[in-house]
Amino acid sequence: MKLFSIRGGIHPEYRKELTSEKAIVAMPMPAALYIPLQQHIGAPAEVLVAEGDLVKKGQMIARNQGAVSASQHAPTSGRIKTVTDVTAPHPSGLPQTTIILEPDGKDEWAELPEPIADPFAADMHTINDRVAQSGIVGMGGAAFPSAIKLNLGDQKKLDTLLLNGAECEPYLTCDDRVMREYADEIIDGARIMAHALGTSRIIVGIEQNKPQAIESMTRAASAFPEIEVIDVPVQYPMGSERHLVQAITGRETPARKLTADLGIVVHNVSTARAVHHAVRFGRPLVARVVTVSGGAIREPGNILTPIGALVSDLVGFCGGFAVRPESVVNGGPMMGSPLPSLDVPVVKGTSGILALTAEEINDRPTEACIRCGSCVTICPCGLSPVEMAAFIRKDKLEGAAKLGVMDCFSCGSCSYVCPSHIPLVHYFNYAKGVLNDLERERNKNERIKSLAEVRTIRIEKAAEIKRATLAGRKPAPDSAAPGNTGEAKAATEEKANA
Amino acid sequence: MSISTMKKSGPFAHGYSSVQKTMFTVLLALLPATLFNLYLFGWPAIMLFTVTVGACLAVEAGCLSLAGKPVMATLADCSALLTGWLLAMSLPPWAPWWLGVLGAIFAIAMAKHSFGGIGQNVFNPAMVGRTVLLISFPVAMTTWVVPHPLFSAGAPGFFEALAITFGGQMPDAVSSASALGHIKTELSRHIPVTESIADVPGLMDMLFGYRAGSMGETSAILILAGGLFLMAKRIISWHIPLSVMGGLFVIAEIFHAVDPTHFTSGTFHLVSGATFLGAFFIATDYVTSPVSKTGQLIFGLGCGVLIWLIRNFAGYPEGVAFAVLLMNGLAPIIDQYTRPRAFGRNRKGEPLPLGKEKP
Q1: Contact B117/A at CB under 8 A
Q2: DSSP letters of A397-437?
Q3: Which residues of chain A lie closer than 8 angstroms to B15, CB-CB?
Q4: What pTM was estimated for this model as a whole?
Q5: Which residue intervals of A156-255 are DSSP H helices?
Q6: Which of A332, B100, B149, B173 has an alpha carbon 20 to 30 Å from A5's alpha carbon atom?
Q7: Smallest CA–CA separation between A238 and chain B, in Å?
Q8: What ipTM goes with this model?
Q9: What ranges do the domains of chain A cover?
C-alpha cells in the first residue's frame, strides 16, 4: 500500500532492545493496591465500596459518572482498607481520592457479566455499554474512556477503524509484546470495535522496527479480508493519531477537528485486546502490560501489572535500581511525565515506567539560541518553535498564540534536536497552561458581565412594577422572590463554570 | 508559578548536537583550505591569521566580562573563534596586523555584542568586520599578493614576515590584482572582458588556488570540499549554498550570453572571488539567515543576484560580503513571510475545510 509522508519528525535512539525480547510476565500481587478514582481528564468515578468491604476480582468498586469518566474494578479479591487521599501519578504530585485494597491472595473472580454470545449480531449499544461497564480506557497513554470514542459512530459517518500499533516512543515495548503474544485477541477486539463503530475497514499501523509484531498481526488478520496490516516508517511521532492517519490515508485532519470527522477512529492495540476480554469473557480492565525499562533498572521487562500496584513494587519486581536514576518517567521519554515519587500507583494509562540515567537523558545547561532552524525543520505540526519560544521568553503569550502554540501537542521533537538544549516543550506547556487559564477567566468574566446585565434589567423591571403598583394600587406581585432565586441560580452556574 | 519554578517537562531524551560541536565541525571543514592557504602565503599570512583570531577571542572575552556573562564557558562555544577565522580568511594575507585587530573589534564588539551576543546579531560579524575595513582602508584591503609558498624561493622568512605584518613594510614588487579586480579595472579602461580574461589565471589555477586573493578566495576546491563535508555532516543543508550559487550562475550566464564583452561567464563567477566561501560558510551562518527552508532559498537567491550586481555595477570588484549583509538585514522579514504551513491549517492559519483537507 502506498504510504504518505508526514512532515518533520525525528529518529531518536530507540533503546527498545532493552525489553523487546522479554516476554510478558505477571508480577506477584503486592501487599496493597491503590486505585485512584480519576485516571484521565473528565470526572472521577463514584465510590461504591467502604472501609472493610470484601471484594472479588473484577467487582466494580467505583462507577463512572458524568460524560467523560471510567469505572474502576477490583484488580484482585481482598478487603477494602480505606478510601483516602493518595499522591497521584501526575507531575503535580497532588493528592487524589484513592481506594486502597488489601489483596487476600486468593485472586477469586467475582461473578462477571455474561459474555456477549455473538457480538457481531449485537447492536452497537450493547457492545459500548459493555466497554463502558468494563472500565476500558485508551491504553496508549491518554486513558480517554473508550466507550465515548466507540459511540462516535452515532454522530459521524465512519469508514475506518485505525488500530495504532506504531509505538513510536523510545524504550516502550508493551504494545510490541502484546501484538506478538496476543495478536488473535487484538484482531478479535478490533473486529468487535469496528462492528460497534459501523466501519467496514480495519487498518493496523505498526512501525517497521517491530517485524515480529507485524508478522504475527498479519498472520492473525489473514482470515479477515477487511483487515489490513500496514508497516509504517520509523519516524517519531508516527504514533500521534493525526500523523498516523496522514501517513496511511494521506488525509490531514483539519485543526480543531477530530480524525473521526474524516471518518477514521483511532484506537490503541492494547485497547482492542481489553475490548476482546470484556465482550468475550465479561472481564473488566484490571491489569495492563507496563514496560519497565531504562538504564537504571536492573532487570528491564514487560510486566503484566495489576492496576493500582505501586511503582515502587513494580520497580522492586524488576530488581530495583542498578544505579541511582536521574529521573523516573511515567510513559515514554518523549511525551511522558516525571513521577513525583515512586509511591504512586500504576494506572490504566501507564504504558511505561522508565528509570533513566543522566547519560540517557543527556540534559545540559541551556545556551543561547543560534537560530539553526532545526526545530522549524522537524516540527511535525509545521510550527516555528524558535519564534514561539522568543515570544514566550518575553512573556508575550498572545504572540505565541498567534504563531499557533495551541496547536503544539508537546511531542518533544524540537527540544530533542535543539543544539542549545533549550527546553522548548517546557516553554510551550507553560504558555498553553497560562493561555488556557486566561481563556477560562475571559469566559467567566463574560458570563459575570451578562449575568450582571440581566440583573440590572430585572431590578429595573421590579422597580417599575413597584412604581406602577404604588401608582395604580394594584395588588403587589411577589417581585423579590423570583429575583432572588434567579441570582442564586446564577451564582451556582458561575461556580460550575469556575 | 513562573516558567522558571515549574518542574521541567519532557522530553527525557536529547540528541547529541551542541553549539560547540556545530561550530567545531565548521572549523574542521575550514581547516584544509586554511592550512593550504597559510602554506601558500607563508609567514605573513600565519602571523595575520594568529593576530586576527587572537584579537577576536580577546574582544569576545572583554565583552563577555563587561556584560557580566560567563567568560570561559561562552568562549568554549567556539563562535568567536569561528568569526575570527572567517574574518582572517577574508583579509589580504599580507595585510598589516592592525587591520586584523580593528576588524576583530568591529566584528565582535560592534556587530555581535552590541546586539546582545551570540544568537542575537542581525548581521554576520565577520562580514561586518571585513566591510568596515574595506570601506575605511580600501588600499590596505585590496593589496593582494601572488602566492609565495612557504620555504619557496622568494618567500619571506620569519623575520621578513615580522616586518611585513608588524612593521608595515610591504615589498613593492609583489602586489597583484585579483581576477575580479583585474577585469573590473580593464573594463573601466574600455578593454572588453573577452580580452582581459586572457590575463587572469586559468580556471584550473583558480580552482586550486594559485592566484592572488584573500585566503578564503583562493583554493576554491578545498572550500568546496569543506562545504560538502558540512552538508554530509548535516550542519548545513543544500538550500542556501545551492541557491546562492544558482542565482549567481544563472544571472551571470544570461548576461554573458547577451554581451560577452562586458560580462564574464557564470563559471568564472563561481570559481572567482569568495563565491564558495560565501555560499557554504558565510551565507549559511545560522544566526543571520532565515530559519525555514523556503526562507533560506529566497535568502540564497537574493545573495547570488546581489553578488552579481555588485561585482558588475558597484564600485568594488567583489560583492559577497555586501550581498550577504544586505540579505542578513532582510532575514527577519523573510522569516515572517516563509513560516511553514501548520498541520491542519491553510497558509493563513485557518483550519482546513472538511472534505477537502488537501491545502
Answers
A1: yes
A2: HHHHHHTTGGG-----HHHHH-TT---HHHHHHHHHHHHHH
A3: 10, 12, 362, 416-419
A4: 0.88
A5: 174-181, 183-197, 211-221, 241-249
A6: A332
A7: 14
A8: 0.88
A9: 16-287, 366-498
